[in-house]
Amino acid sequence: MSQHRSPRLFSRGTFLESSRIAAVLRAETTGGFLLIAGALIAIVWANTPWAPSYADLRDLRIGPESLHLDLSLGTWAADGLLAIFFFVAGLELKREFVAGDLRDPRRAALPVAAAVGGMAAPAIVYVLWNLGADGDLTGWAIPTATDIAFAVAILAVISTHLPSGLRTFLLTLAVVDDLLAITIIAIFYTDELRPSYLLLALVPIALFAALVQRRIRSGWLLVPLAVVAWALVHESGVHATVAGVLLGFTVPVLRSEAAGGPDAGPGLAEHLEHLVRPISAGVAVPVFAFFAAGVDVGGLSGLTDALTDPIALGIVTGLVVGKTVGIAGSTWLLATFTRADLDDELSWVDVVGMAMLAGIGFTVSLLIGELAFGTGTPQDDHVKVGVLVGSLVATLLAAAVLRSRNRVYRRLCEEEGIDADGDGVPDVYQRDHRPGPTGL
Predict the structure, then answer these.
(1) Where are the alpha helices (DSSP H) in 131-218?
(2) Cα angle, residue 162 at apex, residues 429 and 39 outer, rounded to 5°
(3) Is 80 exceeded by the pLDDT of residue 2?
(4) I need a labelling partner for 190 at 20 to 30 A (CA). Which of 11, 201, 308, 415 fits?
(5) Where are the transmembrane segments (predicted)?
């Protein structure tokens, strides 16, 4: 007679699902290093005697003026290239909840709850810093986002043996986080809504959906429709990256019955994700980071002035304290008030370390900062300083915790053996009963 077992928080997925997650993380890792490189180049350039040339490049306007698309290169990066990033996020989110391990509501509850807690707590921290301190509440959403590419790149450097459940959790948390962030952008950072253009945008989106539902994958048909949808959403006043998410949601995840059904292999969503993710991680996000991260710090005195601004202080503490408390706290509440238990091979220190790592807010945080205060304004410069400092502090704290945990798990892997029977499947996926966290 089988014994009922309560749900496990951060339990590993199936071997096939974990293998797919590993492939995604490898791609994100490469993109993360390129993102860091782009940001560093921008910061160094903006603090040299050649800083005006950086500003001139960022503000260079190109595009058809007749279509209201004569935008600066910085705006093209934020509105155009990030739409590619959010298209991949839409594909990934739909795939996770339709065909991934998170189609189980019990598994989905954790990253959703953690993402909500990890966005609410930083927003509250920011508001508390700026409320009554002559601050500006407009940027309350800036510290709510997690940068998956940046976080995964750091994770690749500091970790080799952390359990796969934690890595899967970080990826899924960030995907849900992106969805909530783009929802916030659409609702709270839309200055002037033009419903007619928004209604017109539904036409190319519907045509795109009709084609992908028929499993038509021709770029000559899909790309022009996506570009038209993006342009119309941009003209509507809603941030154009919303178009990327909407288009991603229309793509079917499972194969049709005529093509063999769900067991016949990857569906169209995974195919498009495989094609577009390198463009997103390798081009779109690093180029945006290059144009968004360039801030003239003004030396030590300028950095000190920026960090005395309640806006920057709210962002730093939101990313470092708010993210950690929100994610780890919501996870603890889920474990306390439900029948879910922490997975046998994990410790709560692991959860806190991963929550700290989620405090790396870069791409979407910088985007929201530009939308809240305007590109090139003093407040936007302080936002960039706050995001950079907060992300750096979160990285250092997470590295200290996770590197020590990584040493523990590496020792356990050496003691237990990873694939002792040589069948190509790690032994941990073939054991029904795993050792508890003794010694962890």
Answers:
(1) 148-158, 164-188, 195-213
(2) 130
(3) no
(4) 308
(5) 21-46, 66-88, 108-129, 141-162, 169-189, 195-212, 311-335, 347-373, 385-402
Residue 291 belongs to domain with CATH number: 1.20.1530.10
Which among 16-30, 107-121, 216-230, 264-278 has the top mean pLDDT? Answer: 216-230
In a domain, 65, yes or no: yes
Q: How many domains does the chain have?
A: 1
Which residues, other chains included, contact 269 with Cβ-Cβ below 8 Å and sequence gap of 6+? Answer: 91, 94, 95, 248, 251, 252, 253
SS3 of residue 268 by DSSP: helix
pTM higher than the cut 0.85: no
Q: For residue 372, what are the CA distances in angstroms to 119, 136, 367, 381?
A: 17, 10, 9, 12
Position 167 scores a pLDDT of 73
Written in H, E and C, the secondary structure of 377-405 is CHHHHHHHHHHHHHHHHHHHHHHHHHHHH
Closest among 295, 292, 317 to 140, alpha carbons compared: 317
Q: Is residue 101 part of a domain?
A: yes
Give the range of the structural domain holding residue 319, as residue numbers without chain letter: 8-189+239-416
Local confidence band at 298 (pLDDT 50, 70, 90 cut-offs): low
435 in a structural domain: no
In this structure, are residues 140 and 126 in contact, taking their beta carbons and an 8 Å threshold?
A: yes
User: Would you tell me how many other CB atoms lie within 10 Å of the CB of residue 397?
Assistant: 17
Does residue 67 form part of some domain? yes
Note the pLDDT tens digit of each residue in 221-276.
Answer: 999 999 999 999 999 888 888 899 899 999 998 766 555 555 555 678 888 888 88
Q: Closest by alpha carbon to 292, among 397, 435, 147? A: 147
